[in-house]
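FORM 7B - TANDEM STRUCTURE REPORT

SECTION 1: FIRST PROTEIN
SEQUENCE AND TOKENS:
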Amino acid sequence: MAPLEPTQPDCVWRNVAGAGKAECKIWQFPTRVSRCTDATNVTGFTWALTQTWQPPEGQVYKLNFDAAIFANLLASVVGVIIRNDRGQVMAALSLKGGVVQDSDEAEVVACWKALEFAIDAGFSDLIVEGDNATVMKSIASGQTDLSRLGNIYDDIHCLARGLRYMEFNSICRSANGVAHSLARYAKHLDEDIVWLEDSPPPALEALLAVSRLRLNEELEFTEL
């Protein structure tokens, strides 16, 4: 088993009925599965190094996003997928973004684009997941960011405050395969592509992989 590394802290920023604030402890050296419970003890946040994608509970939707930078492109690419509590695709997006300086900027811009897309599509109860721990920790803190990306972080928080329910979670890359597939597909696009209540063909293999993993986990749990 590979040693644990303190590079993927837990983070969650919650917005309930517009009262957004950060409610989380950061575990720099987690156990195989670490748990973070907010101060009001309403819900908990779990993150595992070997995490697979898990559906949201109830009437909340889960949005996963990812960004990538290709050396031969003067632009970043973004992939977004929104699924319900049954794992069904409600909306998806592949787009080619603008020029960015590094991966952190690409991820922050991707989160901003993902939230705009979700709001335009009519979603108001969201769990947003990304696999860049540094970016997600900054977003989840809810604090003013004084870096060159501060204005984008502010825009993300402004969008989040307009939603009825909002969480920002940091996850492992293994739980973000569908969004990653959509981001890579955007490399070949000249214009944005949106899918509504339909599984995007560029991510079918990744979606099937998620379904197989979840089925195997359910079978293992049943055997126990």
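SECTION 2: SECOND PROTEIN
SEQUENCE AND TOKENS:
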Amino acid sequence: MKSSLLFTAFLALISGAHSTDWVQYENSLYTAGSGNVTWSDARAACRKLHPRADLITIHSYGELDFVAGMFGEDIWIGFNDIETEDRYVWANGATVDFTVWAERVDNTAKNCVHMDSGYSGAWVEDYCSNSLTFACKIEL
């Protein structure tokens, strides 16, 4: 019963998500963004794809492995400390229940985070104005 409900939700979301290819992992849908853009432009691009889409959040090693395997390059994720220095939050307000830093350098100018393919998907602080590719997620 649960999988048929997820499939129904999946079809409903896809029909409203333009013609982008979405892939399901557990209770979420993922898609690759188009081009290299700043963090804020990446977030806006996700929302253009679907009103409930946002930059990806990662909550487990399983999800990290899935995303790293799916994209295989450095990508923006929704983790940031834009509002308060050194207080990292998910852009969509999700609970911070998992982190995997590749390196942490206390740099007040770096407020956005990307998933680094060179570190098996671990996270690196970055300048929000840098241009990277990105991934979007819809939580079902």
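SECTION 3: OBSERVATIONS ON SECOND PROTEIN
The helical segments are 2-15, 39-49, 61-71.
The radius of gyration is 15 Å.

SECTION 4: SIGNATURE
Preparer initials: ____
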